[in-house]
Amino acid sequence: MALINRIAGYADEMTGWRRHLHEHPELGFDCFETAEFVVERLKEFGLTDIHTGIAKTGIVAIVEGQGDGPTIGLRADMDALPIKEATGLPYASKIDGKMHACGHDGHTTMLLGAAKYLAETRNFRGRVALIFQPAEEDGGGGNVMCQEGIMDRFDISQVFGIHNVPDMELGQVETTPGPIMAAVDGFDINIKGVGGHGAYPHETRDPVIAAVSIAQALQTIVSRNHFSLNDLVVSVTMIHAGSAENVIPDTAYLGGTVRTFDKSVQDMVETRMQEIVAGQAAAFGVEAELNYVRNYPATVNHPDETQFAVETAKEIVGEARVNDKAGREMGAEDFSYMLEQRPGSYLFFGAGDGAGLHHPEYNYNDDLSPIGASFFARLVERAQPL
Ligand code: NI
User: Fold this and answer.
1) Positive or negative, the Cα torsion across 348, 354, 357, 362?
2) Is CB count within 10 Å lower at the N or C end of the chain?
3) 69 CA distance to ligand 1 middle (Å)
4) Distance (Å, rounded) from C-alpha 44 to C-alpha 62?
5) Is 191 helix (H, G, I), strand (E, B) or coil?
6) What is the pTM of this model?
7) How many CB atoms lie within 10 A of CB 386?
8) How many whole angstroms from 311 Cα to the centroid of ligand 1?
9) What tens digit of pLDDT does each residue of 118-177 get?
10) Coil, strand or helix: which one is 100?
């Protein structure tokens, strides 16, 4: 491991920031105290070009380098999860039912560590845009910051983001050019039939049979409409109907999730779902309405920026610890919106043994903070050298 010495020297201070953030988790767009804490630190580092209130509580802060050059964007997420913490740690969440169970407190800390170093040393050309976003878990804060125009407003040329991963060796780095995390879509299907007595089904238009048949037929999108080597998940996760043994209900409801990496596959799935739902409804003499919602798009790494990030990571953690051919994840990430607007890359950083992300016993490893901060800082110095 070849951390930046100066950043290694911030380790205790970074742990202090991280544990303070951990004790005070906030959800969604309501990261008010978190943003205030971040701004206080940035001011301590001597930064003055700080823009708050973007996507409600998001921040973009500029670090000026020496001389002309582009603006590189570094992004951290700040929001927590509605989970009751079960770690029993002395710095556990002080807010019942809210917890930093995805390590976004650690991501914020890494970017603060890099900010402190970059503000002290300014050993780069151009500028750095430090992007602190709310609402990664739910609500798409990254999307809202993009919609509010941060890329043009701050003239950002490329963007980088990272995520900690428990149960991956500390300091192991994994990424891949191209799609790395899936697009996540949601759907619901409302079926309207004609209910009646369970003993006289011939007098009804049974929505339960239609719902079951639709659920089965939707599975053929993956097995029969889709090229088998391109990842796709279609999961029906909810079926609700009926309330009594001897009553055929009027309505039934289906819901679920779709995960894709490719817009053409996403379009195909939505079209086939429309066709299947309409066809099945006609077959059973019921009405059925599909509501298909596209949420976070796939996170797609740009090849050149990923190669550059991989080389930078090798410098920090050593060549043997970097895997640039990692498998795709079916989870999703709203950094995807930033990568749709600017070239860049997203990387996973191993955090060592421990409970998984979004688990009530998850415990971010503070030893990762100086590694992530060194990576961010070296990205800037290598991308925009003096
Ligand atoms: Ni996360």
Assistant:
1) negative
2) C
3) 31
4) 14
5) strand
6) 0.91
7) 11
8) 24
9) 999 999 999 999 999 999 999 999 999 999 999 999 999 999 999 999 999 999 999 999
10) coil
Distance from the CA of 95 to the center of ligand 1, in angstroms? Answer: 19
Structure tokens at 273: 């779902």
Distance 47 CA to ligand 1 centre (A): 27
Pairing of strands 344-350, 156-165: parallel
Amino acid at residue number 363: N
Angle of the 32-44 helix axis to the 11-23 helix axis, nearest 10: 160
Tokens describing residue 234 = 């279609």
Q: Residues 136, 58: contact at Cβ < 8 Å? A: no
Compute the distance from residue 49 Cα to the ligand 1 centre, in Å.
Answer: 27
Looking at this protein, which amino acid is placed at residue 149? Answer: G
* Model confidence pLDDT, tens digit, residues 57-78: 999 999 999 999 999 999 999 9
Tell me, in angstroms, the distance from the centre of ligand 1 to residue 102's CA. 5
Q: C-alpha 75: how far from its chain's center?
A: 12
Which residue reads 């953690």 in tokens?
Answer: 317
Taking each helix axis from N to C terminus, what angle separates 369-383 and 303-317, rounded to the nearest 10 degrees? 130
Residues facing residue 89 across a β-bridge: none
DSSP helix, strand, coil percent of the chain (3-state; round to 5): 40, 25, 35
Q: How far apart are the first and last CA of the chain?
A: 25
Token pair in block for residue 381: 């110095």
Assign 3-class secondary structure to 90-102.
Answer: CCCCCCCCCECCC
- Element containing residue 323 per DSSP (H, E): strand 322-323
Helix 104-121 and helix 11-23, axial crossing angle in degrees, nearest 10:
140
Cα separation, 13 vs 330, in Å, equals 35
Quote the tokens at residue 271: 């079209």
